[in-house]
Structures are given as C-alpha cells and as structure tokens.
Specification:
Chain lengths: ~250, ~250
Amino acid sequence: MTTLQRRTGIALWRQVADQIRQSVLSGMTANERLPAEAELANRFGVNRHTVRAAIAALEKEGTLRAEQGRGTFLNDRRRLQYPIGPRTRFSSGLKDQSQTRTGKLLSSRTIPAPPRVAEALELPKTAEVVELSTVSAADGDPISAATSWFDASRFAAIAEHYAETGSITASLARLGVDDYTRQTTAIEARHASSEDLDLLGLSPGAIVLLTRSVDVDSAGQPIQYGESRFAADRIELLIDNRAPAA
Amino acid sequence: MTTLQRRTGIALWRQVADQIRQSVLSGMTANERLPAEAELANRFGVNRHTVRAAIAALEKEGTLRAEQGRGTFLNDRRRLQYPIGPRTRFSSGLKDQSQTRTGKLLSSRTIPAPPRVAEALELPKTAEVVELSTVSAADGDPISAATSWFDASRFAAIAEHYAETGSITASLARLGVDDYTRQTTAIEARHASSEDLDLLGLSPGAIVLLTRSVDVDSAGQPIQYGESRFAADRIELLIDNRAPAA
DNA sequence: TATGGTTGTCTAGATAAATAGACAAATGAG
DNA sequence: CTCATTTGTCTATTTATCTAGACAACCATA
C-alpha cells in the first residue's frame, strides 16, 4: 500500500494527484468516471478538500474533467511511444500515433564547442559548432525541447534549413547527408527546469526524460550531438530490438 | 534563469535542493566546497533557513556533507551507466563500474497472469505466472527494484534458483535457458512510490526510471516480462548501437 | 417532482513551511 | 590570541497547506 507522507516538502494534494494518476487512472479507460471525491478522500486518508486540490491540478494539466452533479471523468490522453534505435528520427517515429508533427527553431548560434560536445562529435577542442534550440510537437502538443550541436565547418547553414523544413533529417539531406544512424543514446530523468516547464507546457514538479545522443553518417563520422528533454507524462521511450537496421 | 515557484505543492526548500543538485553541483568535482549558505540564499532569493533545509535533505541522501566552521562539501557519487541493448543483463552491464553486485529476492508468488503480462509473454489469458519482486545493488547501494513475471508452467522453480544465485541469468540457465535476448524496452519516468523510496533508499520526491522489458529465448519465445525501477539520481540508461549482438 | 448522489463554495481552526533576526560554536589564517 | 568566515541553534511572525463542517448547485432517475 502506498501511504502518503508528510513533512517531505511535497504537499499532500500533490502526492494525491500523483497517486491518482498512477494507481487510480491506470486501470481506467477514457471517459470513465472516477470514484467520488468523498471516496477518494477516504481511500487516501485525507480531507476531501485535499482531494479537490489534487483533482484541480489534474484538471489543469488536462488529465481529468470535473462536472458538477455528474462526477469527474478521465480524459483521453494516451502516452505516445517514441522509438529509439539505430534509425531514430523524430518525425517518422511518431508517424502512426499523431496527425501532424512540427519542429520550431527557437534560436541558433555558432560558438566554440563545449568540452562534452567536442568529445561527442570527435572534434578538436578549438572547433566551432552550430547550436540549435528547438521544440517539437505532435498534434499541437509540445513533446520535446532539444538542443543540438553540429560541426560548424561542415553544417554552417543548418539553422536556416531547419527553420524552413522543421526537420533535422530534411536539413541534413540538403547539406549532403543522405543517411545517418543513431550511435548512442544515454537516458536520464530529472525535474523539469522552469525553462522546460514553459517550453513544454508542464506544471511545476513535472518530470522530463533527458536523452543525450550521437548520430553518425554512413562513413561513421559523428555529425550531430543532441540533448532532448521529453515530457515524461506524455511520452515513453521505446527500444525495439526486433527491427534490425535496414 | 531558473526561477523558483511558490504555491506549487512543492516546498521551496525541496526546489532549492533540486536546483543545487542540478546547477550548482553539476560543475563541481568531488570534495569541492559549495558556496556559503548565505550566498546560496542570496542567489536563489530565499531565506538562509530554506537553504539549510535543502542542504539537510541533500546531506541525508548522501550527496553533501556540512562541517561547522568549514563549509559544505560535495561527496563523491558518480552516476552509473546501465547499458540497454539486445544482450541486456544486470550483472554484466555494471561489471566495469562496480565491485560487487547483489540481487535479493523480496517475495515470490504464483498468480493468474495480469492482462499486460499475459500479452507480453504471449500466454493465454487464463495462464498462471510466477511473480518475483527483487532488489539489485552495486557496491551495497541499491540500484533497482524490479518485478518480473515468468510462465509458471515452464519456470515454476525460478524463485528458489533466484534466491540462491541472486541472478536471473543464472536461474534461467539452471532451467534450461542457455541464452536469451532483450526484445523490447519501454522507458518512462515517474516520482518514486513510497514503497520504492524505501527499497531504494531515496528521499521523498525522488525520480525513478521505469523500464518495462520483454526477453525472448533463442527460439524467439518470450520468457520474461519485467518492470524495473531505477534510482534516477544514481544511474542513467545507455543505449549503444555500436556493439552488434554477438 | 422528489430524492440521493455528486461537485462547488464558504467559514473557521490547526499544522507545516518560509521569513526575519540574533547569537553560539567551530574553523583557519594572520 | 584575535578576527573574519562559516555552520548550528533559537525565538518570533507571516504565509501556505490541511482538516472540519455546513450548505448550495447540479444531475440522473424513480
């Protein structure tokens, strides 16, 4: 039994909200009615007002809707699966699960390569790189915020291409990279920074999945190093070893 | 700039603790001194007592140590890399990064297969499965808590073998599975449940990486479905496509 | 239309978190 | 030893959060 804890720095109503999301909603289908506030209060051992605060938060984030006199209902919000493998690409990976994918360029600049970037791209420490900050969305919902780095001597114009196409794959194609594959992906989880809260439209305390990835061209030369933050409540990462690299 | 937020259900001292972990400690080396409490309070725009509460929490989780008159210092705690690929195994994956690995059996039982388990293992809905609850540790630090399911008709005795060996791979080998590979791994991130807080020795509000994985034998038959929770502040998941399956 | 069940709103009091200020205790350097 | 710097402890006040209870508003349906 998952007992709630006090004096932990996390308000009870927020713990209740997390519990409802995890244990109550997990066994429910879209548009199903939740137990009444009074029953939830009883089940979690808290006051009804605390449950109401939790429900208000879940309603604000779009998970639930409360209707006076009728009850509180689960909205339809499935978690997208984002595939990660040798041929990881944002747009094609979500193809089956969403109607529209957009990539928006927030900013770009050319800077001396930070140490971890130079290492990942196998560039000398003095090299310059192009840094892109982007936000990607599926069906209008922001899915990920990413920062990507490219060798400036080879991909100086990538920002302009990305601004036009909204796609890394398309931008690289214009610059002569007909194909590339994912070399490594490291995955961490953290609390979202306030900047990412804003970019991804999350509520405070939300979790992001952070991936750090290296892509290589067909010659095995690293061409992109990227750090992406995914809204953990909207997406899961899927590693499928069944489909071998084409 | 990462501004702290109020009325979010997350206490300020906890937000400060997260900020210190992320932005202050990230650029520091082991045993380095942190800025003084007064300076941190000034930097984050909160009272010194709030910073002290944050430091107390980080000290309790082992990240820092405070010494009266001298300052507060960063403890040595690197994040382990847990590789995920076609040949994912707990013990061998952490071999280079730790001295000892242990696997402890918490409980086991034979139950009718829950729907998602039956689906993953390609069993009929009426099938029975063995459910193992385990905790794995590296060098004494708990790394992951896992729940695993096996076809009861094929692996009835796996609990006993695991209790003896502390290893899934070794237990399966005793039951005639000489080799197996990882078929799929889905990754999510969540707040740790109070049970996992306990099992993994985490402080409230901590994040876990949740993996749901299917392993298949050499004939392609699913043999294990598992749900593992990793302490996100101690580990990162690494997908490396460079090493092809042997 | 009457009734039971549900969410919405209000008041009041108790507990936890945050701010403010003062001073003690330990450390290291001059 | 003296002094500036740092962490540790204490009191007091204000602001959030949580509990408790009552009742209104709305809905479905008998």
